[in-house]
Amino acid sequence: MCRLARIAAVLVLVLAGAPVLADDALEARVAEIEQLGISAHWRESDRKLDDLAPRLDELTPEQRARVEFVRLRNLGLAGREPAALQGFSRLLQQAEMPAALRVRAYTTAISIAANVEDWPRAFGWLSEGLEYLPDAPESAPALLGAASYLHTLVGEIGKARDLARQALDAVEATGDARGRCLALADLAMAEDHAGNYSEAEGWRRRQIDACQAAGDRVFVANAKYGIGKMVAAQGRPAEALDWSRQALAEFEAAGFAAGSWSARLELAGNLIALDRELDRAESMLLETLEYYRGQNTELAVAETERLLARLAEQRDDDVGALTHLRRAMDAQEIAERESRERRLAYLQVEFDTQLKEQQIALLEAEKELAALQVTATQRRQWLLGMGMFGLLVTALLLLLLLRHSSRERGRYRHQSERDGLTGLFNYQQVRKRGGDAFRRARQDGRPFTAVIADIDLFKQVNDRHGHAAGDEALRSLGGWISGIVGAGAIAGRSGGDEFTILLQGTAADAEALLQRLRERMEPITVFGQTFSFNFSAGVCQYDGSTTTLEQLIHNADQALYRAKHGGRDRVVCARGAGQPEAGPSGSLVVVGSGIQFGRHTSERTLSEIREAERVLCLVDPFALGMIHGFRPDAVNLGVHYAPGKDRRETYREIEAAIMAEVEAGRQVCAVFYGHPGVFADVPHAVVRRTRALGLPARMEPGISAEACLYADLGLDPGLRGVQSLEATHFMIHDREPDTAALVLLWQVTLAGDLSCTRLHAEPEGLQALVDKLLRWYPADHEVVLYEAAQLPIDAPRIDRLALADLPAAHYEEYTTLVIPALRVPRRVQAGA
Hints:
alpha/beta, Alpha-Beta Plaits, five-stranded mixed beta sheet, 61% helix, flat, signal, 4pyrrol_Mease
């Protein structure tokens, strides 16, 4: 968008805050002239200025300055920038002018200077105007917008964006509709120059709503022009054409010529991109080129020439295209030189500002040095004239130094005692101060309670929101704790996300304190992300049996452990070391995951897994993944298996791992595949050992592979009976199959494996199994190799084959051999 559109919006905005005194006729006329400058009524304000000219001498100096400001602003809108700039130079030199009016004058003068590319003057006025903002905060948005505009032109996009956001924040606070309109335009312009076309489009759409609410027709057109430009840059010329037409119509309706020329240029470019109305596009481009050459706007000239070259190329006019491209390159070179001049002017102003600041600092330093020299001279005179007085002064200085040293030592001591992130006591100080308080409480017979708390799922806070969010969570929780503990409590950060609170009071007092802490907590925001978190806590009150603070804290820590495994976001109270928790200190429940965990597991099993303090699993990968979804701390017992390793050794290791948790006093849940009581050595062993310790142990059943087998094969075990044996057991013991019943041989893959190290089938072992079965069954007797489906989407394996073909079949570790009945069972005869 051409710069004149930006200037028009600024001129409208800076007039909106002028006061009107209803009881003063001249003041009312001056205010009316200012108000007519809003939106598209500035020509009417010119006429009113002419009517007021004979009575200028009757105006006060402030009123004359306001009228002069409106006149100079209208000169800028009319395109008479040099005259406007000369007038503003005189106006800004006036000593007596209200700060708000002066800032508005600076804002308008900066925009006009930028339009004629008088960069040194524009940046110089910007530097001067910023000094008056503290005295005229209501005018800040307009000047910040002008500053954003200038920094956009010199390529300081980041700073331009920050300034525009400051302007937007300022107008959002005041509800100034026109200021919001302009601030949104500045943000869109900054994103446009940064090449962020999608973001710029979004700001332009918001600008339409804001400018329509403000009644600013010029800047509504400006926003539509901007959307068209951004849409075209994103490769949507048809949509861009519609926006350009709307912008052109609204610019012309508002009588804003500069905006109309910009819209014509964009409209012609979209027509060329769509290969439509090329004659119309050429006519608009030639008119636009003549206008921009008259304005000496080389960047626009270059863009127009490039579009003419593109049009010529579409018409196969290579000579014309080359001519226009050369002209575009010449204009672009001039535009780049002007851009460098803008950048140089900006850097010069920055340099001058820094130099001025350094000079001021140097003068202040010289002034301070001179003052010190005077003080030193006076001191020498005093020392020469009054020896005793000098001694007193020296003593006083020594006292001051000692006081300063004492303060520094106190500061360093405070830093050594406090956690740098939360401001609470560190681990060492909590233990030191807590030990003293604990001893006094024991001597005086007063209650004393330890609280250990930490943030639930703190690692997820870091993983999801970043470590800065984790630090802010710790800092906030430390602040909330500091705010709720009283003088009788000691609070500190023990390390990581764990906090310790020691208070002279009962466990009920501690729970009330933690409840106040929960009520104090609120969501926090870091880098635009808002999140909440909870905490769990363990509480232990001294009951006369605990001998040390460490024991008391350990008991509270164990209570915290139970709070974590009891579902988190809760407080659990413990008793002293000398009085253990009611009931057994450990327990065991063995549950079955079923063959398909998602379908077969019971609500009781899920509850046991959720509520246990420690969960250990020997299940298939799918079930393990689902369990980790709600118990990420579950232990995988499958790691004890290894190729070539004796399975009996593996079983003993798994048994030892489960018993170690039980003997540690924890509530343990062991999860096994299928039904844990079928062909399973470890579940029965750990139940027996737990009960032998006098601790509760029980087994919750699951759906076994045998139950799935009956369902999948459609067999009723009650029809002829079932004989169910492990394959190797059947082979090495003198067991005869009941041929009148259904016979199930489990783990047929491992048939004949006495080493307990093999995990695959061997033809020799299978042949030995077949040879034994041939004693009772014919070689062509149909048998079934069965494998239960582990996922609901899978089908079970049901392969029917002759008994003699078993050695050549395919086997998995969990394949089961099903041998149907060979004969009908005999009935017991009456009287037998």
